[in-house]
From TrEMBL:
Name this polypeptide is given: 3-keto-5-aminohexanoate cleavage protein
Pfam families for the chain: BKACE (PF05853)
Natural source organism: Candidatus Abyssobacteria bacterium SURF_17
PANTHER family: 3-KETO-5-AMINOHEXANOATE CLEAVAGE ENZYME, 3-KETO-5-AMINOHEXANOATE CLEAVAGE ENZYME-RELATED
Cofactor(s) listed in the protein's UniProt record: Zn(2+)
Keyword Coiled coil set for record: no
Keyword annotations: Metal-binding, Transferase, Zinc
Annotated GO MF terms: 3-keto-5-aminohexanoate cleavage activity; metal ion binding
Length: 310
């Protein structure tokens, strides 16, 4: 393929406001960051939202609706809201925005994993907001652990909404959750997998070796050419693993402020577009062009922007 789908993950639920003055927090800041990413070459925006007053991650469907509607008015990006949400949200809370928005795509974390955010606490003596330290330390007391019944609820909801799931894969065994849901007839084929890597406790170590292992495991379980795939790597690993994925033939790579706050060594990104531009430049050197939103819809088999509910 000569086209590369670029996803910009705008704000996420991992980074806290204390970590960067550029992290988008309010609806309008999130909208502006997404539009800038689109103008730089991103076809998809992965959307989390936050409480406007203090930047705390939230699953408030009204804020999700506001953000999605405002972005849609300014460009035709594919908007991919999260069902990962924050560490303090229930499964039902995370599904409310999907039922309300009926987006073309959304994220789907089907398998248990740990989110070692507590390690971030030791970097700071002071926090901008009172909730930040408590939020980061809260993960010590629980695992992000959707049950098989939760997965069935997720998958059925996405089928009903004609929303294509982006399966977030943190370990080799997680691919088995996707094949199980395929066997249950709850996944519109081909599935779209995103291999996620990060330096935190509980995540697969970011490396070329592990990326190749994840891809080969997917080929073994699902079949060569029978899935599309993307890579999201955190921190300083973001751009190197994106470049590796491009060389391996990935249809999609993800960058953005959710995954890294930097655009080069020691240089804070001012917006997700800074990282999108880096990926676009690397892609051009590989004779790849950024896919437009409509080209992305064709590649991934999406229902189209006319069938969303925002």
């Amino acid at each position: 393929m000569s086209k590369l789908i670029i996803t910009a993950a705008i704000t996420g639920a991992v980074h806290i406001p204390t970590m960067s003055p550029h992290l988008p927090l309010t609806p309008d800041q999130i909208v502006e960051d997404a539009v800038k990413a689109y103008e730089a070459g991103a076809a998809i925006a992965h959307i989390h939202v936050r409480v406007p007053e203090n930047g705390m991650p939230t699953a408030d469907p009204n804020i999700f609706f506001e953000v999605h509607q405002k972005i849609k008015k300014r460009c035709n990006m594919i908007l991919l809201p999260t069902t990962g949400g924050g560490a303090n949200q229930t499964i039902e809370e995370k599904l409310v925005p999907i039922r309300k928005l009926k987006p073309e795509m959304c994220s789907f974390d089907p398998a248990p994993f740990n989110l070692g955010l507590f390690q971030i606490v030791q970097r700071f003596d002071k926090f901008k907001y009172d909730w930040e330290k408590m939020y980061l330390e809260m993960v010590k007391m629980g695992t992000f652990a959707p049950s098989f019944n939760d997965d069935l609820q997720y998958a059925k909801t996405m089928l009903e909404c004609e929303t294509k799931p982006e399966f977030e894969m943190y370990e080799l065994g997680h691919i088995g959750y996707v094949t199980w849901l395929m066997d249950e007839g709850l996944v519109k084929l081909p599935p779209h997998l995103q291999f996620v890597f990060g330096p935190m406790v509980g995540w697969m170590t970011p490396s070329v070796k592990h990326l190749v292992m994840m891809y080969e495991e997917a080929v073994d379980r699902i079949g060569a050419g029978k899935f599309t795939w993307s890579v999201a790597a955190a921190g300083r690993h973001q751009i190197p693993l994106a470049a590796t994925a491009m060389a391996m033939g990935a249809q999609n790579v993800r960058v953005g402020m959710e995954d890294s706050l930097y655009a080069g060594k020691g240089k804070l990104a001012t917006c997700s577009a800074d990282q999108v531009k880096m990926v676009v430049e690397i892609a051009k050197q590989m004779s790849l062009e950024p896919a437009t939103p409509d080209e992305t819809r064709a590649i991934l088999g999406l229902k189209g922007i006319g069938k969303v509910a925002f």
